[in-house]
Amino acid sequence: MPLVTQAVAVNTTATQLFPFAAASGGAKRISVTNAGPNPIHIGAAGVTTSNGFKIAAGGSFSLSPGIINGPIFAIAETALQVSPADTRVMVEVSD
């Protein structure tokens, strides 16, 4: 299965990780890895550090596209997160 990957600079403003089209276009799995030094939080538009799903520094999280109904955003707890793009997104797509 082909993989689509991208590096994203996540800071203290909610940042879209990838458009919904990438998730719904035959994707089998979506993984988000926090390669930065501080926690990030993922969620829908308007995500904050109070309401998002926390991914610790060095942590990863995988989502099934069947539960995604819109774009996924991320926000960092501190501006020191970006160096320059410490969040990795991988989408496994169908052949």
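The record above closes out task 2.4. Task 2.5 opens with a second protein, given below.
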Amino acid sequence: MKYIFVVLSVVLVVTAFLYTRLTEEAVVVNSEPTTQHSEVEESVSSIDKIPKVLDHPAVDWESINNRLNFEVQSFTKEEEAAFNALHVLPLNWVVQKDCRTPNDCELIWEYPPTAYHTMDMIELEEQAYDNPLAALMMGIRITEEPSVKTGLSTKERTNWFFRASALSGKTGPLMRLTGYGIDSSTNDAPKLSVAQQAAIQHIAQMLGDQRTGIQESYAEIDLYWKENSRNDEEYKQSVSMSKNQIYYLYQNNLEYMEEVQRTVTGSNQILKQFAAEGGAPDA
């Protein structure tokens, strides 16, 4: 009876933890203008062209990520090309900052905003069916337009990011969900649990992106249960249940991306890649 009580207690704790972390949401804000590139204006990009490992130029990705903010920056042509090879929303940065007061500044960007930054939300949603950049901008802008979309769950919002990745064959939208490629002072992606982030990182890794930081997510989960378990057995059971949750989320996200890819492009490349990688994430 004592063992059963412990197991039930673990289940309740895990359920409450995952539910709370999974349902937390943050307001989506994006006023960041970016350039329009011809390749992202195409209606559908063929995902059949995804190589086994994505082209991953030898640049300092940590340095690039640290410079993605609203301060005056500069990027080399090689860094810009490397970023754009993996991201749907092209790299843009502040080249000049004119401040009348510390809190009243005009930002001058390297490139002008895309049409999707200001497009009517109804039109944007129509284009997002088969346009990866429009789909990504739906995910970024959607909570800015409460009159158009209200009461969206985290899953419904994240699906726009998954759609952008499935249509483009690029991992940038997935990495954006985990916090990569966005300025930390904004919050223009849904707030996700560590388990959901780990599941998304596994998909990005499966598609060849080596920037995922998947081990950091597992380390955070491990540390949480070490600090919140009453004994070693409970710790092991809790970590195992968290990994099962990650696998469940991983499968669901992949199934949605595969459905988008198949119905819009007629391709099944993600499913093939899933099978080639063994069909399950490794912790």
